[in-house]
Amino acid sequence: MKIYIDFDDVLCETAKYFTVLVKELFAINVPYEQVHSFNLQKSFNLNDVQYDELMKAGHLPQKLLAYEETFGASKTVNKWKREGHDVYIITGRPFDSYEPSRKWLDTHKLEKIPLYCVDKYGREIINQNCSYNMTLAELYKMDFDFAVEDSPSAFQHVAKFNHCKVAVYNRPWNKNSELPDSRFKRCNNWKEIDKMFEEIKRV
Predict the structure, then answer these.
(1) Strand ranges (DSSP E) for 75-187?
(2) Which has fewest Cβ within 10 Å: 21, 22, 61, 98?
């Protein structure tokens, strides 16, 4: 099977780190459970200057390398890889964050999993022509059987893969989001995601 996996808040605890970072930078205290919007500017009630500063700080190489792994992520992904499935990490991180992101994956025993940076959210100003960068049009030419995603803003992208089943990693910012269709199923952790995958394999 061909598998799509998001990076932030699926493989690692990005939002939890940002709640700490926004407190350090601006003395704004928003508990993780109250991050009710995928748009962190809205969740933290930041002005444009503050938001830009937060995003730059959060994507510094030393910060990206410090994110904690989501429990069970690498163990599950490596199990799928050993079973012979084709696994791809499709992230909406900025194109220039590839190198530290790649290093994080390698450090967490995911060195065999290819990583692609896709402009999922229309944030990139310049399309850097690198083998690991991908436009949405290029992503849509691919096909997947299974996907793991947490961002409501990205549901529209994975919905384009006609026969793809999607595990929605339950997070505070998506719990009230309407899922696109019956292919999408909520999961609370990697154990539940793997269980969903095993059920799909048997069909």
Answers:
(1) 86-91, 115-118, 133-134, 146-149, 165-169, 184-187
(2) 61
Q: What is d(CA 67, CA 85) in angstroms, rounded to the nearest whole number?
A: 26
Burial (0-12, 13-18, 19+ Cβ within 10 Å), 113: buried
Q: What is the DSSP letter of 65?
A: T
The label of the residue with tokens 């450090």 reads: 107
Q: Give the separation between CA 54 and CA 22, rounded to whole angstroms.
A: 7
Question: Contact, 11 vs 93, CB < 8 A?
Answer: no
Q: What is the mean pLDDT of each run of 10 residues along the chain (203 residues)?
A: 98 97 97 96 97 95 96 98 97 91 97 92 64 86 97 95 96 95 98 97 82
Q: What is the pLDDT of residue 135?
A: 86
The secondary structure element, H or E, covering residue 19 is helix 14-26
Angle at 8 between CA 176 and CA 81, to 5 degrees: 110
Angle subtended by helix axes 73-82 and 190-202, to nearest 10: 20
Cα 87 to Cα 146: distance, rounded to the nearest angstrom: 10
Q: How many CB atoms lie within 10 A of CB 76?
A: 19
